[in-house]
Amino acid sequence: MILIGLVPLGSGMERLKSMIINHSSQVEIMRNIYNENIDSLATRPLPYREYDEQQSWWEANKVSLSGYLYEAIEQPGEIIGFLILRDRGGFYTPTFSLSKCEWGKGYGREIVYDYIKKANGPLAGSQLKSNAAICYLNKQAGWKVLATKNEGSELVELLIHPGLASGVEIDSLVYKSILGYHGI
Fold it and tell me: Which of 18, 46, 114, 184 is deepest in the core (most CB within 10 A)?
């Protein structure tokens, strides 16, 4: 077992409501937020997605994905962000983003805590070292940096989180799988 320190999570969803993505119109909302934020998501080269490409990607991958849209409780019906959790077999990888007009309102923290709960197991992720906001949120949520690498002109930190189900222990095989996912 590999021990990783765990920071207690916040009280959870207080200002956001999540809904499962299960329709092509919801995939389109996700695509628009993704494309709007591609520069801040790009810890690996990510393509701009056209409508047909995104719909095809979703259909081909949805067996290993859990997708969610978020709306602010005080703005019913207005989608402000998305989350994709990919099951990698023993661990999960999250991708999330908020509409740019919603940045700085504290919603990111709620989504981070929500995806840790939704994954209910170990997670692997990455962050741009230059993105101070996400680095701060991830540190507060208990993510640990495994390594740093160059990706183009950016420094990318490769991360691990024990999740909730395993407490502070990650099975050594899962840990090795996470290292393999990161190319370490």
Answer: 114
